[in-house]
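Students often ask why we bother encoding 3D structure as a string. The short answer is that it lets us treat folding as translation between two languages. Here is a chain of 29 residues written in the first language.
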Amino acid sequence: MSESDFYKTAKSLYEFEAKSIKGQAVPLS
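And here it is in the second language, the structure alphabet:
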């Protein structure tokens, strides 16, 4: 996996966490 792909994945995960915190918190486990 290239660095750009890793960045995109990390960014999407960060945005998902932010949405979960703002709205309804969805446990990942």
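Translate back mentally: The CA atoms of residues 20 and 26 lie 6 Å apart. Keep this in mind for the problem set.
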